[in-house]
Amino acid sequence: MRIARFAGDDDPRFGVVGEEDGVPTIAVLKGDPLYAGFELTGQKVKVEDVRLLAPVIPRSKVVGIGRNFADHAAELGNDVPETPLVFLKPNTSVIGPGEPIFHPEQSSNVHFEGELAVVIGRICKDVPAADASKVIFGYTVANDVTARDLQKSDGQWARAKGFDTFCPIGPWIETNLDPADLRVTTTVNGETKQDGRTSDMVHKVPDLIAYVSSFMTLLPGDLLLTGTPAGVGRVVPGDSVSITIEGLGTLTNPVVDAS
Ligand code: MG
């Protein structure tokens, strides 16, 4: 099931994405399915008539995993960490499909990072890897936008990963997906830059949930970004970044000057 959050003429609403007579359509839900379940209103809207928004706004946090693909770690001259390398992005960095990534003046080397994102479905702590699927609501596509120069110069990653608009997600949440072996591709202005598979993750999704939940409580709507394959690179204002994950869809965002 694909869950979208969207805006028409009124407040953001949630719905189930499907097709009616070959036309992409959203069956509107009564509330946020993370908290209110999947009760339908009976109303349907065409996808083309609404604006898709970030499918979830994390209440507390976006958890990122660094250097989780050996070829990506190597391309930046880093070793693969034995235990997952965890960082946080603020929830204020989250934007939706089509919304602009603001290129900050503070950086001269902003990179895209195409990633599979896990959406947490329930409050949890100390989740065994074997039970990870029980706390997963679904999956979406994420761009872990990173100011590479500031990441290096700051040491800490809060600024480099945390600018407003540095966490595009979408276009929806897929609740029925096996994350073990999915193709992840990123294009910039139509040119392919990343082409990897989630099967090449060093630490797999269940192990990441077990590790992260071993030291912090995860809440419904929290996001876990699982790391990026090789091929990261710079974007500048005027570029358009598209990330496609097999079975999920494509997330596209323009890059614009923040000044
Ligand atoms: Mg990343």
Written description of the protein model:
The protein is built from five helices and 20 strands. The mean pLDDT is 96. The protein is 12% helix and 41% strand. Strands 1, 2, 3, 4, 5, 6, 7, 8, 11, 12, 14 and 17 form a twelve-stranded mixed β-sheet that branches. It has a five-stranded mixed β-sheet with strand order 9-20-19-15-16, with no helix packed on it. Strands 13-10-18 form a three-stranded antiparallel β-sheet. With 259 residues, it is mainly beta. The protein has two domains: 2-52, SH3 type barrels; 62-257, Alpha-Beta Complex (Fumarylacetoacetate hydrolase, domain 2), CATH 3.90.850.10. The chain binds magnesium ion (MG). Magnesium ion binds next to loops.
Task: Describe, in short, the structure shown.
Helix content is 12%, strand content 41%. It has helices spanning 33-36, 70-75, 148-154, 158-162, 205-213, and strands at 2-7, 13-20, 23-29, 40-46, 51-53, 62-66, 85-89, 94-95, 101-103, 110-112, 114-120, 136-143, 146-147, 167-174, 183-188, 191-197, 223-225, 233-234, 240-245, 249-257. The strands form three sheets. Strands 1, 2, 3, 4, 5, 6, 7, 8, 11, 12, 14 and 17 form a twelve-stranded mixed sheet that branches.
Topology diagram in text:
Elements: E1 2-7, E2 13-20, E3 23-29, H1 33-36, E4 40-46, E5 51-53, E6 62-66, H2 70-75, E7 85-89, E8 94-95, E9 101-103, E10 110-112, E11 114-120, E12 136-143, E13 146-147, H3 148-154, H4 158-162, E14 167-174, E15 183-188, E16 191-197, H5 205-213, E17 223-225, E18 233-234, E19 240-245, E20 249-257
Parallel strand pairs: 6-17, 8-14, 9-20
Antiparallel strand pairs: 1-2, 1-5, 1-14, 2-3, 3-4, 6-7, 10-13, 10-18, 11-12, 11-17, 12-14, 15-16, 15-19, 19-20
The structure holds magnesium ion.
Magnesium ion binds next to loops.
